[in-house]
Amino acid sequence: MATDGRTALLVERLADRYAFRTLLGEGGAGTVYEVENLSLGRLEALKILTNPFTDPDGQERFAVEARIAASLEHPHIVRIHAFGQDGGIPWYSMQLVDGPSLAVILDGGATLDGPMAAQVAVPVLEALAFSHAHGVIHRDIKPANILFDAAGTPFLADFGIAKAVENPMDTRTGHMLGTPAYVAPEQALGEAVDARSDLYSLGVTLYRALAGQLPFRSDQVLQTLLLRLQEDPPSLAAACPGLHPALAAVIMRSMARDRNRRWAGAAEMREAFLAACAEAGMAWNRPLAVAGDFPLRRRSLPEVAPTADLPRAKGRPWWILGLAAAAAAAALMPFLRAPKAPPRAEAPRTAPAPAAAPPEPEPRPRARPAAAEVLPRRPVTYPRLLGDGLAPAPAGECAGLSVGAALVVGEDGLVKSCRILSDVKPACAQAARAVALKYRFSPALDAQGRPVEASVAIAVDFQEAR
């Protein structure tokens, strides 16, 4: 059982309460172990959070959040048994769920059909309705946080206790709360979240489970976040032709960019799900057959995936500033668009066979443009930086900064324009722009494999002062 020095110290301090048995997962958010509660003789999961307390109020924030989360007693919420901190290191123990996470199922190449998605969504929505009614927003709904026991019953895990130990004034790190691929637009902008933010993340989770892919895809974190601010998600009905339209509509509404256009709450979305299931004639109240349909492996907690480490400038993190600037300047910085298709010529009609006084053909109604006739509005690939980039910008007063920038990359891979997104001194912005304009990229490609002009987000890193 490998541990770092800090974790090893905590394990030693907890040795009179817990016997540490197995390492279940580790990553940017923390490390999870299967433990035995020595006083109760019960197997539990114990999570040691990565971030130590960084301010005098950290312990109190953590205690408040942990007490609230521990008060959530619901059949589909993983129960928190105990929590504490030793040497400033926060930890908590919880119910051990003996089955795979939804992430394990999806990462194995499986997708869910409509009934399976309903069997996951309805219990999770019940759990969210309960937690929201108690004032608790999850903040990180994703496949890794939906667990199944051996019977296939879903549980929602990992409520936002980690939020309590994140110092909002600490600008030395860029850990983003929530997973970029699943967070709501307002969460990506650093705005206040509410119940509708959780519904957005659940919608993205269900989209991936049904379609086998995320609605917004990019290998760059900021690009992924910018896409959801600029564009509506692609149609789930088009991605899953066999899915009942009513079910697709419920999920698509949960992913509206404007939170006021989403479902008002988890209870309302649950009722809409049940109505869609009734319309489709599908059952939703059977456990997912994980033991028979998917590989079952012991899992207590969602696999702890590293959070996105994004560099911050002084003040608010640059990715929040960048997203806000991109949202405000959408008209000036349109996201990449494929060239519009020329109008399609009307297919020649077959003349009717000669006959006496053939009837005049009725005028054809103006047909709606078929979805297949519209070229994709997004490219298939995004610009990629060639090589390792240029030498870092000179340091000076900008030493140690990472400056976010949005570039317009032409079809030839050359940078056509640069807009600085970070709130930095003019001299630092000018130096970063000068370097960024010299970058070279492989261009974005549209669905036909043709180069297209595109926007891409980057960070220009200044050297540390020596």
UniProtKB/TrEMBL annotation:
Renumbered residue ranges of the record's region Disordered: 341-371
The Protein kinase domain, residue ranges: 18-274
Keyword ATP-binding: yes
EC number: 2.7.11.1
Gene3D superfamilies: 3.30.1150.10, Phosphorylase Kinase, domain 1, Transferase(Phosphotransferase) domain 1
Pfam families, sorted: Pkinase, TonB_C
An MF annotation (GO) of this entry: ATP binding
GO biological process, one term: transmembrane transport
InterPro entries, per the entry: Kinase-like_dom_sf, Prot_kinase_dom, Ser/Thr_kinase_AS, TonB_C
Keyword Disulfide bond (UniProt): no
Keywords: ATP-binding, Kinase, Nucleotide-binding, Serine/threonine-protein kinase, Transferase
Highest taxon of the lineage: Bacteria
Protein name, UniProt field: non-specific serine/threonine protein kinase
Organism: Mesoterricola silvestris
